[in-house]
Structure formats: structure tokens, C-alpha cells
Write a structure and sequence with these properties.
globular, Rossmann fold, 7-stranded mixed β-sheet, 25% strand, alpha/beta
Length: 203
């Protein structure tokens, strides 16, 4: 399988959502359901804070993640996906959505928790490294980053393992703890400061 060499353009994702309202079966997949549960557990106490979800898609995971959040910003590059996400989360006043692409249009603000689930391998190495730096720049003191990568074969610029390790190489320069919570079918990991937690960002 020949890999793409450049970050995948927004038009690719918009075309997928125009062809299918749920191209990755987020609403019905047993794989997604189990992964969502594990990811929520991985978010720990940071779920009570200010959350950024990069690649929110149609908002299935967003709706669950938002239940205990102070605020949640979901970003995606597909207008069709964002329209569906807004409809799904319409009753959740703490949630908002924006059409943004990382790393060049990273949202302003400071976040206690940044979640990047199955999005980083769509980026080429340069854009992925820049996204890691942006995450560090916008992470509140005592915050955490959750990253998840599917480990199967794709034609994306990076494999799941490559994306995971490159992202870790960037963010562990400042976040000393890297915890791999699941490493079969998908890799789920958390990055955080030594001995810090959500309360450190509230001082």
C-alpha cells in the first residue's frame, strides 16, 4: 500500500461525509463503543475541566465527553460533520464547535484536556510535530493530553505507531509521564506532568 506523503486535505473528509453521514460507523460500531469507554476512563479527572477535542466528527464521542466538562470545544475540517455534531449536541450548552484544521488554525485559549482520537496519522510528520507543539502551547498547567491511534494498515501519511511515537517525541519534552493504556487494535495513551492534576490549573 502506497502512503500519502502530505497531510490529507479537508476536501477529502468533506467528500466522505457527503457520501455517508457516518463514514466510520461511529454510531453503531462495537469497536468505537469500546474505544469510547476506554477513552473516557483515560480522561480521568480532567473531564471536569476545559476540553478541546480535535477531530470531533459528527459528535458521538463529544456528547459523552461533555457530560461532566466545564466547557468543550470540538473542532473538525468537515462542514457536514460539524453540522451533524451541532445537531447532536444542541441541548448541551457547554459545548461549541468550530471549523478548524491543525496545526495552522489551532484554536485560541487554554485547555485542561486535549483529546486527539484517530486524527494524527492524517498529518505528515512536519504538521504532526507542529500540532504537538501547539498542544503544549495551549495546555493549562496540570493538564493532560489523550491520544488514540488505530494500528491497522492505511494509506495515510503515517501509521498509527509512527504517529504515536512522533507525537510522544514532541510532547514528552514537557509532559514527563506517558502512559500507554491500550495497545491492541488501537493505541490509547495519556501524557501529563509529573505529580500534577486538574487542580493545578485552577490556582
Amino acid at each position: 500500500m502506497t502512503r500519502r506523503t502530505r497531510s490529507i486535505e479537508p476536501a477529502y473528509f468533506e467528500a466522505l461525509y457527503r457520501e455517508s453521514a457516518d463514514p466510520w460507523h461511529f454510531e453503531t460500531s462495537d469497536y468505537e463503543r469500546a474505544k469510547y469507554s476506554a477513552t473516557l476512563d483515560a480522561c480521568g479527572p480532567w473531564r471536569r475541566g476545559r476540553i478541546l477535542e480535535v477531530g470531533c466528527s459528527i459528535g458521538v464521542f463529544t456528547a459523552a465527553l461533555a457530560q461532566t466538562a466545564e466547557t468543550l470545544l470540538g473542532i473538525d475540517v468537515s462542514a457536514s460533520a460539524l453540522e451533524a455534531a451541532r445537531a447532536r449536541c444542541a441541548g448541551l450548552g457547554r459545548v461549541r464547535f468550530e471549523d478548524r484544521a491543525v496545526p495552522n488554525d489551532f484554536p485560541v485559549g487554554s485547555f485542561d484536556l486535549i483529546v486527539l482520537s484517530e486524527v494524527l496519522y492524517y498529518l505528515d510528520p512536519g504538521d504532526l510535530a507542529a500540532t504537538g507543539t501547539q498542544c503544549l502551547d495551549h495546555l493549562a498547567g496540570g493538564g493532560a493530553i489523550i491520544a488514540c491511534h488505530w494500528l491497522g494498515e492505511t494509506d495515510y501519511p503515517l501509521s498509527g505507531v509512527e504517529a504515536s511515537n512522533l507525537f510522544a517525541a514532541v510532547v514528552t519534552k514537557h509532559l514527563q509521564i506517558r502512559t500507554v493504556l491500550h495497545d491492541e487494535t488501537y493505541r490509547l495513551e495519556r501524557f501529563e506532568h509529573t505529580g500534577e492534576g486538574l487542580s493545578a490549573s485552577r490556582g
